[in-house]
Amino acid sequence: MTPTQHQAPLRDYWLAEAIRLREAHWGPLADADAVRAARQGPDDFEQRILLRAQALAVVTPLPRMIERWRQGALAALTGLLLLAAMTGALTALGALGDGTRAVNILWALGALLGLHVVMGVLWLLSFFIRAPDGAGGLGRVWLWLSRKFARGPDAALVPHALFNLLAQRGALRALLGAVTHAIWFTALTVALITLLVVLSTASYRFIWATTLLAPDTFVALTRAIGWLPAQFGFNLPDAAFVRASDGTQALPVEAQIQWSIWLMGTVAVYGVLPRLLALVGCAFVALRGMRRPALDLTLPGYAGLHDKLLPRTETIGIDRPADAAAVTPIAAHTAAHRTADLGGRAVIVALEVPADIAWPPVPLPTAVHDGGALDTRQDRNRMLDALARTPAARLLIACDARQTPDRGTLSLIASLAKHAAHTAVWLLPSEAAPRRQAWVDTLRDAGLDGQAIVVDASDAARWLETEHADA
């Protein structure tokens, strides 16, 4: 993994995977400009995929959906944590009762920890018996709720893309485990706090009740359960108090205090502590996987981009002189200047300007780069690549106003304008042309400012000289 890969955040990988899924479902996106921008990046296939995804982000709703799903998932988790806190408090209150009756210590312990122990054992067993999607229990509930916040035809792709990434790094199970343990940790912590508050402000009697078992059985059971909490400072109840807690004898306050400490100790050590350790462990694994995401480059959606983003051969210029009879003056001028470095200067180019128009039509300042005619696909791609590397401060596009404006020309003008701070269109020739007004109307409908539509050569020269003066 290269250093730049470490710097890319999870969101960039998430967006790239979401775009792959979107293209797999609905077909490829128009990515000519995105591919061009990506090929200006490092010679690393994965990094170029990420750059392509960032360039495509402006033409898809996926970035907004990612943010909306992230907020929805956070809201769902917050709601589950609040519900867990309420459940924990009610469980503790239900285990203790209203104080009018004695509390059966074993029943109270079962109410507080019984379901937690069962679910904890099932979670451990899930490492040996894996669920199909790696999710289970409360993690599955969180996924279901988070999907309820996603709307739109592509909304389901967003969580799917994230879980694909996490699964590749082995972090999906850890993330879902962290959510599950966070909910349980919240419930048990609130239950413990509720026990502390209620036992500190109200009087309760603790007993055990049995028909078959002897008192010494409860002494042994109490010591077995309380041994581990005792290692953390939660003292065991006195054996005499345990034997006397059969509900037939009145016990001193000290006995009730010892039972209270024993009950809170078992909840803390067997409930809160295991969930805290599991939460920290799962969160560590999940965060480590999120900090080091990776794309599965063997998938068809990525493998098919290899030749586009890392072409095996690239055009490096003219390999032989063209037929002299077929070279027009503007084409020859283009061949001499099209490989120059733009360097952020002002640029003038021609789109389908015929040979009867002298080129350049006006004297150009030395600071202005003459891009010549963009009549072939290679010339257009070469200019777009150059502008992608170093955007122009100003771009003047000369067009033949005697021709009818078509979608292809307008699309090329829009693509070129993306790489310039200011763009103007020069309608040639200067004398009246029957389709000039159609050009003006079409360009204005496309969003070009009327002041950026140049007709006279003097206006074109002034527009370029203004940039030259600014430089």
Topology, element by element:
Elements: H1 3-7, H2 10-26, H3 32-38, H4 45-56, H5 62-96, E1 103-104, H6 105-125, H7 138-148, H8 157-168, H9 172-201, E2 206-207, H10 215-231, H11 239-244, H12 253-291, H13 300-303, H14 306-309, H15 329-337, E3 346-351, E4 368-373, H16 377-389, E5 392-400, H17 407-417, E6 420-428, H18 436-445, E7 453-454, H19 457-470
Parallel strand pairs: 1-2, 3-4, 3-5, 5-6, 6-7
Could you explain how this protein is built, in words?
The strands form two sheets. Strands 4-3-5-6-7 form a five-stranded parallel β-sheet, with helices on both faces. A two-stranded parallel sheet has the order 1-2. It has two domains: 62-291, no CATH class; 329-470, 3-Layer(aba) Sandwich (Rossmann fold), CATH 3.40.50. The protein has 19 helices and seven strands. The radius of gyration is 36 Å and the shape is rod-shaped. It is of the alpha/beta class and 471 residues long. The longest helix has 39 residues, at 253-291.
What would the principal axes of the Cα set say about the shape? rod-shaped
What oligomeric state is this? single chain
- Average per-residue pLDDT, rounded, comes to 82
Low-confidence stretches: 1-6, 315-329, 334-339
What's the story with the biggest beta sheet? 5 strands, parallel
Elements, N to C (H/E): HHHHHEHHHHEHHHHHHEEHEHEHEH
The proportion of residues forming helix, as a percent range, comes to 55-70%
Structural class: alpha/beta
Strand content: 5-15%
Give Rg in angstroms.
36 Å
Q: How many domains comprise the coordinates?
A: 2
Total count of helical runs of at least 4 residues:
19
How many β-strand runs? Answer: 7
Separation of the first and last Cα atoms: 42 Å
Q: Can you list the strand order of the major beta sheet?
A: 4-3-5-6-7
